[in-house]
Amino acid sequence: MIEWFETLAPIALPALFAGFVAILSTIAVERLGGTLGGVLSCIPTTIIAAAIGIYGRGEDIDGFRRSMAFIPVGILMNAGYLLLWRIAPAKLGRSVRTHLLAATVAIALGLWLLVASAIVTLNTLLKPTLTQSIAVGLIAFTAGTFLGFAANRIAHPAPRGRNRVSVAVLALRGSAAAMVIAVALVLARAGLPVASGIASVFPVIFTTIMVATWLSQGPHVPTGAVGPMVLGTLSVSAYALLAMWLFPLMPLALAAIVSWFAAIGLVSVPAYLYLKARRHHANVCAGKPENTVSPSASISNHR
């Protein structure tokens, strides 16, 4: 019994924590809404549990750093995944009217899995050094930054949703987050740090957000929320890049806290201020009140 607990605890406890945090963040976002809600929906949450679980007792620091280095790659893939939710409905709308949501999900997830498989395969074949892996992570973070600003260059309208998050959706969100982190930790313990890093940011939570919002508010609401989410999710990449160096240098709990506050201060706060300024400028140019358009409110008001 004790051995069974010792085997499962390093996976189950971080996974349960990730699910709990995902539910709490959803409730917080629902209360705040607007641009702030859009940024807060993407702050580092489940990655905290993933990083702590992958680091474990610090026995394989190079493997941990390699796993964290590929998280920005996964976040860049998530940005592309979210942008497909803006592009695919517009391209498929005329030809796939009755099953547009299913087609969008299939295309977005299918391409994400295809790219993820290609990255893991290339890593296995090329066997990059730790320094090269870290360089890849930094390049992915830089590319994600440019993509985030490009995605918000034009304000895409999205009416504010009016429905609160239901208990069923909260439970689904928490279960999905727990499942993703559990899989990532299993991969890490199987000696697959790159696969673990990418798996830890699998867009299952984004999918529940987009699908639930689409069903309750219509397709125009989630597509308008894409831009703020693409920019806000860069904070997860920042957390991973910080954690890879801070976790081995200081007590684990302190390193997790410092990494979180640093990621929020360096990415989330500037992202919020930028989006708020862009929204104000767009409304002034259009002659509208400042809070008329709220492209990210949908994240906080789906069923």
Describe it for me?
77% of the residues lie in helices and 0% in strands. The chain is an all-alpha fold and 303 residues long. The chain has one domain (2-300). The longest helix has 35 residues, at 252-286. Helix 4 (61-69) runs antiparallel to helix 13 (234-246). The model is unreliable at 291-303 (pLDDT under 50). The chain has 14 helices and no strands.
Low-confidence stretches: 291-303
Number of strands: 0
Order of helices and strands: HHHHHHHHHHHHHH
**Approximately what portion of the residues adopt beta-strand conformation?**
under 5%
Question: What is the number of helices?
Answer: 14
How would you state the average pLDDT, rounded? 78
Largest sheet: none
Q: Tell me roughly what share of residues is in helical segments.
A: over 70%
User: Radius of gyration over alpha carbons?
Assistant: 19 Å
Distance between the termini: 40 Å
The domain count comes to 1
Shape: globular
The class by helix and strand makeup works out as mainly alpha
